[in-house]
Amino acid sequence: MATTPPELDPVDGCCAPATGAGLSELDAAALAHTYAALADPVRLRLLSLIAATGEICSCDLVAPLAKSQPTVSHHTKVLAEAGLITGDKRGRWVHWRVAPARADLVRDLLAP
Amino acid sequence: MATTPPELDPVDGCCAPATGAGLSELDAAALAHTYAALADPVRLRLLSLIAATGEICSCDLVAPLAKSQPTVSHHTKVLAEAGLITGDKRGRWVHWRVAPARADLVRDLLAP
DNA sequence: CCAATAGATCGACGATTGTCAATGCTTTGA
DNA sequence: TCAAAGCATTGACAATCGTCGATCTATTGG
What pairs with residue B94 in β-bridges? Predict the structure, then answer.
């Protein structure tokens, strides 16, 4: 390794400065968005409740999480926007499930 | 559903208040801490650079990430505190590597 | 010993986030 | 048709976070 730092040009004013190896900035942003959805204890417990029950209604999430209804609604929205869960409204209730395409991933994410 | 929240006592000094299924609050907090470390695009690119090179010095991280030196230092600290990377100081430089115990995990986390 | 360099820490700033009370919308049951 | 229930949205607030300039510490080379 160089005893003198390689001094790649600081920023060439234009495009992504040749990160060379590693994640692209786009991939990094997308990944970070997913991990941000998992970066909250309440959301992790929420997700694990959904994963454990297979399907659960929002009204049955408020009590175990010990959070207000708007707060639970907020967290389900974040997880849904990250594509980790999907909810379908049947009558008065919204039933949440792990997004099918992400089922395996979610299982791994909850027990790493 | 109870219209009144069950009023679990915030913490009963003892055990996890019957979440029933799912993650314990302790496990959730620990997991969330790890995912929080991954919830930033710059840290993900930083981690992928370390993973790609096997070992890299801080001075070689500033340019590819296009962030100031204090910012890079901050991010390496966050990743290290999450146990994802370890750095050893050799002379004037700190060399960063993926934490050996987490190598497999990190590989999966970067290519999910 | 001194000047230079790698890196950490501090202080400050704007931006984002988690939370709840209040309110609005929609669907059901009577 | 009406009251109630499930859920979303809004607005506000404190707390946390990402970033950088300035500064401090430690190590090297001369």
Answer: B89
